[in-house]
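Annex B. Sample input.
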Amino acid sequence: MTLGCFSISLTVQDLKKSRAFYEKLGFQVYAGEESHRFLIMKNGETNIGLFQGMFDRNILTFNPGWNQDAESIKPFTDVRELREKFRAMGIEIAQDSVTGDQGPSSFTVMDPDGNPILFDQHV
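Annex B, continued. Sample output.
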């Protein structure tokens, strides 16, 4: 079972301040737009997302079908297959936005400590 690109999605109070801080740590803006209140930053193989006013807590994020450079990979485990495998293992789906038989979709599970884990497929 391949989960795809991993990043942590951080909820931030001030996107500009957070960007400046992470740039000091060696991260560079990779995607996103300040006008849309989010940036994706990269340092080597490490990805972080900075989101202002979009979430109420930090989220672990996996992107099935992408590598760490947001490039499509094949084969990969589709988000729908992941969801069904998790259900079969008794993992509760906290939020389900899966649609159709293929393509972009997402769902969220919670770890035992209440940390959200988002599976967000873009391909």
